[in-house]
Amino acid sequence: MRRSRASREIIKVDVEDTSHVPFGTKHKDVVKVAVEMQGQTTQLVDLDQKESLEVIVEKLCEGWGVENPHYYSLSLISHEGARGVYITEKNRHQIKNGSYLRVSTAPSKAARDIITKIKNRNRPMAEKKPVMQRLAQMSSDETFAVEFITSDGVTLLMDLVVSGVTTGENLGLVLAAFLALMDHGIVSWNSLNPRFVQRVASFVNKSTVAEAIIVQRALAILESIVLLSDAFGQVVSGQVSLQVLTEHFKSPAAEIQLNSVTLINALLIKATPAKAKEILDIINSRHVQGLILQGIIDGRRTVGAEMAHQLHVLQVLLFCCLDDRIQTELDPGDPEQLNKVRKLYALAFDRDLSAQGSALFAENKGAIRRSKVEYMENYKKLGFTNYTSPILDFEETPPGLLALDCMLFFAENHTESYNKLVFENSCRDDQYVCPFARCAIALTLLLCKILQVGEPPSETGQDYHPMFFATPNAFEEVFCVCIQSLNKTWREMRAIHEDFDKVMDVCREQIGMALSHRPRSPAIFGTKLQDYSYHEIIRQIQDSRVSKLPLDGDVEPFCGLRNTITPGVVQLIKAHRLSHLVKGGLFQKFNKRRVKDKFWFCRLAPNFKAFHYGDAGEGTTPDIDQLSGKLDLADIKQLVTGKQCPHMKESRSQKDSVTPYAFSILYYPDNSLDFVAPTKEMYDLWTDGISALLDQEMTSKTTKKEMEMLLSMEMRLALLDTEGLQLPSEPPPLPPEPDNYDFAVKL
């Protein structure tokens, strides 16, 4: 809202005469701020932090000639036009020199006024839109939320929804206010009105453009109910249709797509095993995977940070069904598993028997007329270690029975490739045979480690692979591609059994490099694997070795040169880190649960003397003057990381998620500025930069890697003139002294 010309005029007023205060005390407790009030002239104030807020407001109102000062409170605003945050004794330390304050309606009076206007039956609901907008804006302020909730405001909002009198945009504003109020954690999600829960659940079935905002808010509320309410979580699970939810993936509104994926993740996290399987079957269907791939991943807009995180969580949850098989211990007498092993044998050596079904694998010994020795030989050709009892090869967990499942999937769905692989190895000399079963078991374990199958979702993770949303049984399809690549690598290496670990190491490199391209399907993944053949991997390793001189040995000349160059390299890395901090970074907000689409920005002042921070939108880069918070470097006590962070201590008992990139700046007296970096790279840059500011060692892996790279480069440049020469490990001996030094004197 524009201020009038008169209100933009500035006058200087002292809230308290501080001329008698000693200089040191005044500098510490008195801050110079600007204070505005609607319709009044802005004041420049020397504000004494030792005074109570009530006294400060009373004196400000007195200066303006405003009556009833108890109707007003101070709020801190980040920039002109912003709503501001109410100042309380708890957060008044955020008032710094140069802060911009506003005297506005006190939260208790604002809450009463809003409730009175909403309850006013003489005004139609359509005319109450400004009140609803004001409520939606103010509900994110905790001080206002306490007053509104104390006045039974949450119950009023639920009644508005249940009664049906509120519709359209007003209903969207009511739902937005309700969600913001509940996010403060003051009211339990278990205390909701059951009819309200059912009513909100019914909104997700509406997808018209006019009601998009209602669907968006309803999805967000339902997610919170599922995660935070034991009483109503199952109600939501029964009321919401998965088919309808997945159809929202086609919505043109990014927020609806995001909230739909988030709600599905919440339902999966809280579901019983049977319900989770039902949901996963729907997600793994070709129709839904097509919606995810085409509507979200390859849609009209780029995938944002929060959507990337939710896709990461969904991928982890999709892998949960694999984790059950990984941890399942083998029962050697289980006929189902025995039949799977026999099916592998039949598809390789007895095609006719396999075509007749598993009934032929009964205990009728006359059905298969072969000697025991021949069976053992064939199981050995299949690569089983325990070829007398091949089922025992699957005893180890992980990978457990998942390896057997993947092998059978390959044999049944890619039978021609399976037979080709078995036949090819049958024709090799025994020492060059690629043991299919042993390789398949090791490959399954390798894929589980690379893809982190069985690991909980990361609170900040944004890594996901589109190909796992591209086709049903994507993990098994990836296995089929990899096992054929492994066999090809074995052949190219002319490997023998003793080279098994070396082959698996090469496979790990190949898979990692192929995954780095984020292929859209297992077929494209297979093409990328072919680009990284064994010979290509060897070439890259050799190039890496050639690029490295033996500069980190114990040779004295190298050590001396290295020690001379190191301080300059350290200063270069330090300057880069500080430059990154000055540029600033966007961080996700966290509370008792992850907060969607809420970010804050932090950056270091160009003079390296203070951090400036404040709320920001996704993808924005605010200027320093738009950031309301300030932390002076002189006030910083230390940097802590991981579980030592104050905002991570509450999550120590949580096992369903991990937050590896958390760090906090502790500052006087007992406060902290808490961060959660979205990536490992950003975590390293910020922790190194803060350590450099505090004159501490930069210890991240990124710094060590850059140190080695820069030192190698600098030393190579310094040694260009010695290229091709054999440098001695010790300095040459000094020649003997001459008989006399007459040659040094010109007579």
UniProtKB/TrEMBL annotation:
Keywords: Apoptosis, Phagocytosis, SH3-binding. One of its GO terms (molecular function) is SH3 domain binding. GO terms for biological process: apoptotic process; phagocytosis. The keyword Ligase does not apply. The keyword Protease does not apply. Residues 336-515 form the ELMO domain. Involved in cytoskeletal rearrangements required for phagocytosis of apoptotic cells and cell motility. Acts in association with DOCK1 and CRK. Was initially proposed to be required in complex with DOCK1 to activate Rac Rho small GTPases. May enhance the guanine nucleotide exchange factor (GEF) activity of DOCK1. This is ELMO domain-containing protein.
